[in-house]
Amino acid sequence: MKIAVVTAAVGLDTVELYQPKPTVTSSHVDYFIFSDSEIPKHHRWKSRKLFLASRDEYYEHRRTAKLPKIMTHYLLPEYDYYIWHDYTHRISLDPEEIVETYLKDNDFAFFKHPHRDSWDSELEEVRKGRLDHTSLLDEQRKHFEGAGIEKAKNFYECTCFIRRNSEKANKTCSLWYDYVSKFSSRDQLSLPAALQRYAPKVTTMPGTCQMYYGNNEIIPQYRHSLRIQGLVK
Question: Domain count of the chain?
Answer without folding.
Answer: 1
